[in-house]
Amino acid sequence: MAREEELALSTLPGSYRAQLSDAEFAKLSAFIYNVSGIKMPPAKRIMLQSRLQKRLRELSMDSFKEYTEYVLSERGKQEELIHMLDVVSTNKTDFFREPIHFDFLRETVLPLHVQETPSAPIKIWSAACSSGEEPYTISMVVSEFMRNGGALRDYSILGTDLSTKVLKMAENAVYKMERVEGIPLDILHRYFLRSKDRENPTVRIIPDLRKHVKLQRMNFMDDSYPINETFDVIFCRNVLIYFDRQTQEQVIGKLCTKLKKGGFFFLGHSESIMNMDLPLHSVKPTIFRKI
Fold this sequence. Notes:
Distance between the termini: 43 Å
Strand content: 15-25%
Order of helices and strands: HHHHHHHEHEHEHEEHEEHEEE
């Protein structure tokens, strides 16, 4: 992929073929790590160069030296930081990704919540919600549980992400047809509306699901999280892999302050909390409960 991006740069006209020097990359990668926790090793220099080309074009800048000086300035931190993080953050997600987690939610977490707190709605946090596939999948699972006789009073889902770009996509809740091809037809028909555009077919999450999902921007690297409620369940999957081990432990620790005692915490299957000092014990691989 890096080679393809490097070749693509050769097709850009004039000043848009600006090259990111090792010194500029070092400054930007250190800055990105400090403000977002995202690791940018030297192997990602070409990727970063390619992704930031669009920002240079939009800002009418001729060099990465100019861009680096701008984004590191006080003015740039106010005006450009959020756009740079939109560009560099990775947002890979799918509906019903890692389905064992949603099976556990349906078969264990929801019945247990009804048994222990029958009059209380369940509160779930999708802590790296990207373009919305995860929180809307959760909403479908909970809705199906209630539809099939689960005596759950109500539910709410908070979706947060660093990127304003993907949060806007999540808010719109519109997806190309290929994004939903693996979803069972009965679920697809029940929870998605099909567009009338035959040339560019899309689907949209129905209003009855969207009303349960609230979205807001949040940075895992903030000292504290601007969320006043606590949750019965937190999903934080496939985002911590971009952080170093110390940052992972710090982030999970802060997330746990928003998790109720006995609440469930879901990690991605490539992630681990082994040897971390956290108030969690393992229930199943990548599924934990707060002590």
